[in-house]
Specification:
The chain is mainly alpha-helical. It has one domain. Helices cover 61% and strands 0% of the residues. The protein has five helices and no strands.
């Protein structure tokens, strides 16, 4: 799981990775990669992030359903979706 998580992390630009310990966050993204594969969505990524963020900062204003986020906040999940899909595609070759 950690190897998959690290592969995903390596495909996300450093400036987009949240501060703090993100090991669990990228493990959650690894679970999405295994469960959803290339069908993973920005809403899936947001839900995983929200679960992680509840431990990091329970009062974060973006801990809400994906559909309630503004379009800018929704687009912020796309680099993570792309990273997950890229790793899944590379592993399936």
């Amino acid at each position: 799981m950690d190897e998959l998580a690290e592969e995903i992390r390596e495909r996300v630009p450093d400036d987009l990775v949240p501060e703090g310990d993100t090991h669990l966050l990228f493990r959650l993204y690894a679970v999405l990669a295994l469960a959803k594969g290339e069908r993973v969505t920005a809403a899936d990524v947001h839900n995983a992030w929200a679960a992680w963020m509840q431990e990091e900062n329970r009062g974060h204003p973006a801990i809400r359903p994906f559909e309630e986020l503004d379009s800018s906040a929704q687009r912020a999940d796309e680099p993570f979706v792309k990273a997950i899909k890229t790793v899944v595609a590379l592993r399936s070759r």
